[in-house]
Write a structure and sequence with these properties.
This protein has 195 residues and is α+β, with helices and mostly antiparallel strands. The protein has helices at residues 4-11, 29-54, 77-80, 131-139, and strands spanning 66-73, 82-84, 93-94, 96-98, 101-102, 110-115, 121-125, 152-170, 181-194. The chain has 4 helices and 9 strands, in the order H-H-E-H-E-E-E-E-E-E-H-E-E. Strands 1, 2, 3, 6, 7, 8 and 9 form a 7-stranded mixed beta sheet that branches. Strands 4-5 form a two-stranded antiparallel sheet.
């Protein structure tokens, strides 16, 4: 036989924490709307953040492996700068396979070291074959001493094609070779000259 106390317990609605969710209070419509708005707000922040992160900034690779690069140059760099490495990335090779053995390839496939204005080193084949740089080279062929040449910037799109290890670079044909390093190889396009 059921006591009065048992009848009273059985007739009271149970709430969460008292043995289940039977009769649990439903959230109010205002609370539901609040949750929806919070969810939408968080989603919007994530989307805006992703869009900002994907914007291309100089030196930051895009999803296609391309970077916007401002390359600092003198016209004499076409002949002066060089690199040495035992291996390349087909069909691209440094001008030397070691410090004393020249590679006999075409300029369009010959890797040369160039720095961007933010000091990122790339090995770039055929940079001076870009139309804007050919024009700049003709306008100021390096017939005078290097220190009398005007420095300029080539604003190019570079497509990263890989890295080459054991690379040594030099900045003058009579200069010393650097210590070996691993350097990114990038092909140029859409170059414009400033300066």
């Amino acid at each position: 036989m059921e006591s009065e106390q048992d009848k009273q317990i059985r007739s009271e609605p149970q709430t969460e924490g008292q043995g289940g969710s039977v009769g649990a209070a439903q959230p109010s419509p205002a609370a539901s709307r609040r949750r929806v708005f919070i969810g939408l707000g968080v989603g919007a922040v994530v989307i805006v953040g992703a869009a900002l992160a994907m914007q291309r900034t100089p030196g930051a690779p895009s999803l296609s492996g391309e970077v916007a690069a401002d390359i600092t140059l003198l016209t004499s760099d076409r002949a002066d700068v060089d690199c040495s490495a035992a291996k390349g990335i087909e069909p691209y090779h440094c001008g030397f396979t070691d410090e004393n053995l020249a590679w006999k390839g075409d300029e369009q496939n010959k890797l040369k070291p160039f720095y961007t204005t933010d000091r990122h080193l790339y090995l770039i084949p055929g940079l001076f074959m870009q139309t804007a740089l050919q024009e700049r080279y003709k306008a100021e062929a390096p017939a005078k001493p290097r220190d009398q040449l005007k420095r300029f910037t080539a604003k190019c799109t570079l497509k990263i094609v890989g890295k080459v290890g054991g690379v040594r670079v030099r900045w003058l044909t009579t200069g010393a070779w650097s210590n070996p390093d691993e350097v990114e190889v990038a092909t140029p396009s859409n170059c414009k000259v400033e300066g």
